[in-house]
From TrEMBL:
Residues 55-112 form the PepSY domain. Keywords: Signal. This is PepSY domain-containing protein. The keyword Nucleotide-binding does not apply. The keyword Signal applies. Pfam families: PepSY. Residues 117-137 have a biased composition (Acidic residues).
């Protein structure tokens, strides 16, 4: 579930934008759920349940990320790929650098705060290894 919002601001406007995005994303998840296979349905149902039962909302996670890295929220994603549910918040800092923070959905703890250089196409992957096709994958 990806919520890609550009140039958000803090405060009430951020809250309204994140909530509206969440409603849209939930509708998209329901549509994807209806169109996918049985294995995907079970995985998506588990993800929807995890989002619904998260103690920390996407809006809360955005606020936590902005307190950690002042700037603007570019996107908020739900991620449970490594067995731990977290919000991945991409923040464009006041200095123009992009950071990706992972915020625990259970307690709001910042699990990671790393430079997000996915737009970098210098022939190295984000882990610093050579990437012969230059696509940073």
């Amino acid at each position: 579930m990806k919520l890609d919002v550009r140039h958000l601001v803090t405060g009430r406007r951020l809250l309204v934008t994140v909530l509206a995005g969440g409603v849209i994303a939930a509708g998209g998840t329901a549509t994807a759920f209806a169109a996918s296979g049985d294995d995907d349905r079970a995985e998506q149902a588990a993800e929807v349940k995890a989002v619904q039962t998260a103690k920390i909302s996407a809006s809360d996670a955005a606020g936590i990320a902005l307190r950690t890295v002042p700037g603007h929220v570019a996107s908020v994603d739900f991620d449970d790929d490594q067995g731990k549910a977290a919000w991945e918040v991409e923040v464009i800092g006041k200095d123009g650098t992009t950071r990706e923070l992972s915020v625990d959905t259970a307690n709001g703890k910042v699990l990671s705060n790393v430079a997000d250089d996915q737009g970098d196409d210098d022939g190295t992957d984000t882990d610093g290894t050579d990437d012969p096709d230059g696509n940073d994958d």
